[in-house]
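Ticket #4471: structure output looks truncated?

Reporter: J.K.
Steps to reproduce: submitted the chain below (249 residues) through the standard prediction queue, then opened the result file.
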Amino acid sequence: MEKGQLDIKLIALDMDGTLLNDHHEVSEENQRAIREAEAKGVKVVLSTGRNLATCRDYAVSLELSSYLVTINGAEIYGPEGDLVERNPVSLPLVEWMFDLSKKYNTHFWAISTERVYRREMPENLAGQEWLKFGFDIPDDAVREVVLKLLREKKELEISNSAPTNIEVNAIGINKAEALKKVCGFLGIGMENVMAVGDSLNDMMMIKEAGLGVAMGNAQPVVKDEADWVTSTNNESGVAKAIEEWVLNK
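Returned output as attached by the reporter:
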């Protein structure tokens, strides 16, 4: 990848395992690099599997001026905090996945428009609109069985945010598709995006961005798809990528 070929106008950052260190903090180096990029006119967008309630404070503290991609693209929020788009998972699929978690005795979590549920679900699933369902399955064999069943449905977008978990969104909903919409709002193209991440839910945006950056702690398959590999989330790898490719330090 030649620096001269790039015109980065938007930096898309995953949060857990990427922007945040293992203590869920944004390092001073990362904060400084993000502020310098924004001062240069480059937009910084958090692109995360988290919901708005668990990422908004980070965006505010970083004084970000642009869009927010949350829940792997299930929701997009505008610069003023307004909901721009929502892409739910159908109720029958959520019910089926909840039954699957019970059948295989797995940990699970689910995100509705109201809140995040962990290890328990409301009695009336139909009373809420669902945006993502997740499984956490340390047992490799059980995880493979569940993955196979999910893939056979052919109605789900399947990724992960850590090697032992599975994240499920509505089909066609991922960070890359959400970023394409954000680029459309801003009048730029995906070739103007630097995307940084560590897990399978970052894979599509890393592949489709003008510059795809994998963290030093990224899953090997993500590193394989990236144009460049930075240092780890505990070593301010985001700052190093921004300095290398945006600030030209």
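Triage note (M.O.): checked the attachment and the full token line is present. The radius of gyration is 18 Å.
Status: closed, working as intended.
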